[in-house]
Design brief:
Length: 532
């Protein structure tokens, strides 16, 4: 116990003790941005990047400055927009006119180059967003697999759409066409993976792309810029860096963005959508907030439930949109559940992202530990106790997980998304309590049910599938595997993402049709024969 206490107060290392392979020898100053196939040098104002990792010196402990990125202005943003729009050229540009096969060749080349960048990207991910090495590597690998699976799905889709259909005297070939210029904005918690889960399908379907890295997790995209530059024709992939107000507002207000792919808060999504002069023209693909609950029924296997709930609520410090963010436990088993949960938290390794088997690491969002402390204090004012030893203890950017019980309806954390290592537990006697919580919640992403009574689980699942998009049984909430649909109801999202669904989202159905006459059949077969 005392070793953990000491660990928290001395959790941040002296620079010289950071293993050589993970050290940042020098600052990473992102100076280039990609526009119209050109890596332009930025010499204007920059944003300094602070790591959530603090380093110790003989006199103080402070967040390490790890680099900077451009603070571009409206003028550069509009040049980027012109580049993307002219590469699309109303669907007549080189990229949207290219065959699916040729577009796949380009993405394959991008993916072929990625392994060489893994080490640098993973190191930057650890420093920029504090994600553990294991989870950073997993994010990187998952991104590559997602891209490969997207290409495989597209090949299948393309084969299926190359057939003609004859119906009611009409013959037709149904296909898919791109939508135009896509603005891709990923979140800080999965900066690479979630950006690529929209960027890759958008490109594969023939759209051109402007991508803006999240506020936190910018520098790790640097190594990719060179690859984008050499793999794609000019204007197909472009980047903007900077403040949303300066660079995103002019893009959307121009009315020339056709698809907004945004993973972040509902407040920002609403604001962005409202800026478009013709909102009905803008297709939105949104991944927003969630407050996924777990329901632990009386007969549940408690060891399993605790294992899944700990991983579900505390992997990457609870900073997953799919994290379990509130746990309802039947009051008959609440005591045993809390004891086990608390023990398991005590076994989680805390430390710096590169440390072996570490789970709990420093948090990247500014003032996040203050926000979480407020949530904990508020829950305590509303009658909850901090169940685990050292729960809620803070050292600068580090926050030790807090298990709260019994959390009541009046507490902020009962409804607010914490997006961090605080686990509110609510006792229930009547199953209607968690069910009405979910029904009345503003969010509707996923739920986890833990129990052993098949009848009870089935009737709960029947009710809950109409409230959320995925019901997990004796398993934590999660997005993967990526061939599964990922969506949210209510305020949790718009559109369904999976390797195949995303290809549909970034395209539109089109049909070439004709009356089923001998002459038209002859024209169609000539077109097909010569692959015109
Ligand atoms: O933040 C949302 C991520 O897509 C989570 O993915 O649930 O598979 O870890 P995951």
């Amino acid at each position: 116990m005392s070793s953990i206490r000491n660990n928290i107060s001395s959790i941040f290392p002296f620079e010289r003790y950071i293993p050589e392979e993970f050290r940042l020898r020098q600052q990473v100053n992102q100076k280039e941005y990609l526009v119209n196939g050109e890596l332009r040098l930025w010499d204007g104002p920059v944003q300094e990047v602070l790591s959530p990792v603090c380093v110790r010196s003989s006199s103080d402990v402070s967040q390490k400055v790890i680099g900077s990125y451009p603070l571009m202005t409206e003028s550069e943003a509009l040049q980027v927009l012109d580049a993307a729009a002219s590469a699309y050229n109303h669907g007549r540009g080189h990229w949207p006119s290219m065959s699916v096969y040729d577009r796949i060749v380009h993405i394959e080349e991008l993916i072929r180059r990625m392994p060489a960048m893994k080490k640098d990207i993973v190191r930057l991910m650890m420093w920029e967003i504090g994600k553990s090495r294991r989870e950073s590597e997993r994010e990187f690998d998952r991104t590559v697999v997602y891209a490969k699976n997207s290409m495989a799905a597209l090949r299948g889709m393309d084969c299926a759409s190359s057939k003609f259909i004859a119906e009611q005297g009409i013959i037709g070939r149904i296909g898919r066409a791109p939508l135009g210029v896509v603005l891709c904005m990923g979140p800080f918690n999965f900066p690479l993976y979630e950006t690529f889960t929209t960027l890759i399908p958008a490109l594969l379907m023939g759209n051109t792309v402007i991508f803006k890295p999240p506020k936190l997790g910018v520098l790790l995209h640097g190594p990719m810029l060179g690859a984008f530059h050499s793999v794609f024709p000019p204007g197909v992939v472009n980047t903007v860096f900077g403040e949303g107000k300066q660079v995103i507002t002019p893009l959307i207000s121009s009315g020339r963005i056709d698809v907004l792919a945004f993973i972040g808060s509902g407040r920002v999504a609403d604001l962005l959508k409202s800026m478009h002069p013709k909102p009905h023209r803008l297709r939105s693909v949104l991944g927003l907030e969630a407050k996924n609950p777990a329901i632990v029924l009386p007969g549940a296997d408690l060891d399993l439930a605790v294992k899944e709930c700990v991983a579900g609520s505390l992997s990457y410090n609870g900073q997953r949109c799919t994290a379990l963010k509130i746990v309802f436990v039947h009051s008959r088993i609440a005591g045993r559940f809390l004891d086990k949960f608390s023990d398991e938290i005590g076994k989680l390794r805390i430390g710096m992202p590169w440390e072996k088997d570490v789970t709990i690491t420093p948090l990247p969002e500014p003032r996040k530990t203050e926000f979480l402390t407020e949530l904990v204090e508020d829950a305590v004012r509303h009658g909850a106790r901090i169940i685990n030893a050292r729960g809620g203890r803070v050292n600068r950017t580090f926050f030790y997980p807090a298990l709260l019980y019994p959390v009541s309806t009046g507490a902020r954390i009962y409804e607010e998304e914490q997006f961090g290592p605080v686990v509110p537990v609510v006792p229930f006697d009547d199953i209607e309590d968690p069910v009405s919580y979910i029904t009345e919640s503003s969010y509707g992403q996923q739920v986890s049910i833990f129990g052993n009574d098949a009848g009870m689980i089935a009737s709960l699942a029947d009710v809950l599938v109409n409230q959320v998009c995925r019901v997990n049984i004796n398993s934590m909430c999660q997005r993967g595997p990526d061939i599964f649909p990922f969506a949210g109801r209510k305020d949790s999202g718009e559109g369904t993402l999976s390797v195949s669904d995303a290809l549909r989202l970034f395209s539109i159905r089109t049909i070439v049709a004709a009356r089923d006459s001998g002459a038209n059949k002859a024209i169609f077969s000539e077109i097909m024969k010569d692959r015109k």
